[in-house]
Specification:
Layout lengths: L1 E3 L12 H10 L3 H15 L6 H10 L3 E4 L10 H7 L4 E5 L4 E5 L2 E4 L10 E4 L1
Parallel strand pairs: 1-5
Antiparallel strand pairs: 2-6, 3-4, 3-6, 4-5
Helix pairs in contact: 1-2
Length: about 120
Amino acid sequence: MWIPYNPNPRGNRVGDCVIRALTIALGCDWDEAFTILCAHAYGIKDMPSADYVWGDLLLSRGFRAVSMPDMCPRCYTVREFCQDHPHGLFLLSSSSHVVAAQAGDYFDAWDSGDTVPTMIYTR
């Protein structure tokens, strides 16, 4: 089930999906998630929005990454993933979006349930 969620202090909905997802994954507010990610990116010397930068941050925090099978790239959606995974904490990454899922719900500023994840991070 989609839970409307936008912790951005200014209510912005574009360009900060990684930060919004990290607030759920790391259990912190938007400012702290942004700061943590920027510090990590600084250490790697790359942009915070790069997939491997925020992915490395999650790996350094005990998450593991699982690539989704490429057998049917348009058929397994965020919504279906959440229905199949009623327990646990996940960050679901697609080619252009990141959304947090927990206990079978996904948290996002808009209903991204039709998005097709290609990478799953879980702890």
